[in-house]
Prior knowledge:
Elements: H1 7-15, E1 23-29, H2 44-50, E2 58-60, E3 66-68, E4 71-78, E5 81-86, H3 100-110, H4 118-121, E6 124-131, E7 134-139, H5 146-149, H6 158-163, E8 189-195, E9 199-204, E10 216-223, H7 227-236, E11 241-242, H8 250-254, E12 259-274, H9 295-304, H10 307-314, E13 319-321, H11 345-354, E14 361-368, H12 375-387, E15 391-398, H13 400-407, E16 416-421, H14 428-436, H15 454-463, H16 469-486, E17 489-502, E18 505-506, E19 521-522
Amino acid sequence: xxxxxxxxxxxxxxxxxxxxxxxxxxxxxxxxxxxxxxxxxxxxxxxxxxxxxxxxxxxxxxxxxxxxxxxxxxxxxxxxxxxxxxxxxxxxxxxxxxxxxxxxxxxxxxxxxxxxxxxxxxxxxxxxxxxxxxxxxxxxxxxxxxxxxxxxxxxxxxxxxxxxxxxxxxxxxxxxxxxxxxxxxxxxxxxxxxxxxxxxxxxxxxxxxxxxxxxxxxxxxxxxxxxxxxxxxxxxxxxxxxxxxxxxxxxxxxxxxxxxxxxxxxxxxxxxxxxxxxxxxxxxxxxxxxxxxxxxxxxxxxxxxxxxxxxxxxxxxxxxxxxxxxxxxxxxxxxxxxxxxxxxxxxxxxxxxxxxxxxxxxxxxxxxxxxxxxxxxxxxxxxxxxxxxxxxxxxxxxxxxxxxxxxxxxxxxxxxxxxxxxxxxxxxxxxxxxxxxxxxxxxxxxxxxxxxxxxxxxxxxxxxxxxxxxxxxxxxxxxxxxxxxxxxxxxxxxxxxxxxxxxxxxxxxxxxxxxxxxxxxxx
Length: 523
């Protein structure tokens, strides 16, 4: 399908004038939203942005607690059946009524092969329409975190998707369709214009069913990849808020009259993944075998990394070193097991020699340069750390759109990569199922390294259905031990969310790093 032009929407944006006294909120980030289709990427910036246009049945409040959204209430009619009572009178932004047909359609669309949101919905066998305002979800087995999984199921209009030939999601970079570029939901804001990698504009939805807590008529999301330029835009008043604050500019912003910093610990864990599925690494000079298949090599990589120095010097204190794939605030975090091994280059060299690589080897490292706190700088710091044990790293730092399209391509085209993950359900099972489970078409959807352990897979399945909290916690503890023993991945740190805004901007800053416009006020 040819790329859809944006000239008409851009012209509309240029001609749109906010009414007198209307509040406009202008903010900037270093990277863009990848697409307007909520099924195309399980990634925070995209889901956060689209949650201002589309809505789930159950949403999160300011404190990340669950509350009704498109569903007003729900109950379990059996251990595997949940019945949702939908909100009456809800209109899509084109004026058509929201019904159970849209919910059933969205679930089916989300579970389709090209969807990147299959994993959170994988426990669901089917959704059934009872009547226009009642729908049932049946899960394959009892699901202890079913409601938490619903918060990122952003409901789409069945009729709108059918009218625009977008009933199936497409893979970004491989195919194209209308829903990649345009959005039409039930939420508090509606899309006005989109210029990829530059600016996307939304305006207040006058048909929204809820009572606004915001005072915004217009929101302009600007992409400013250069950190100095982004900070300068805030200092000059060109934007009201920046979502990604360079650590080196924190002190300057603190000292600037009229500006404020917002900081909170994030639920996201930054980690390194190593490809353990390929028989040979294309980016390596080792021929005929894959060094990362040997646990001694993976352990050597971990022991070579001085994460405390990265957190304190590279990130200027905006990172908390970790040895678990999920941190404090996520159900299943175990402080007793969050003990990072001390950096030991000598032992790392010996492990490499024992594994048959006394002189090390060469490998490529894929990193984003516009997604996480100091992401490119962190990867740059890893290069000399690994070089001192003989691993020569060829760094490939790229924009997040290219990075995600590469490592999450159908063939997971990466040998070694840095990634961040916030469990969508704020529960360990999400990370286990999505990042660490053996890839099977549903499980292991973001397991780009191809790690596989049948014992862990069996635990993941049990954790997913166990409703006894104590038994479930014990199994999660056991899963952490397996992952750490295997050095399945190399956890680095949980980062601190740092935003900066004008003093007249009031907003919520959730620990999941979402930016809900419905809580923003410009005074």
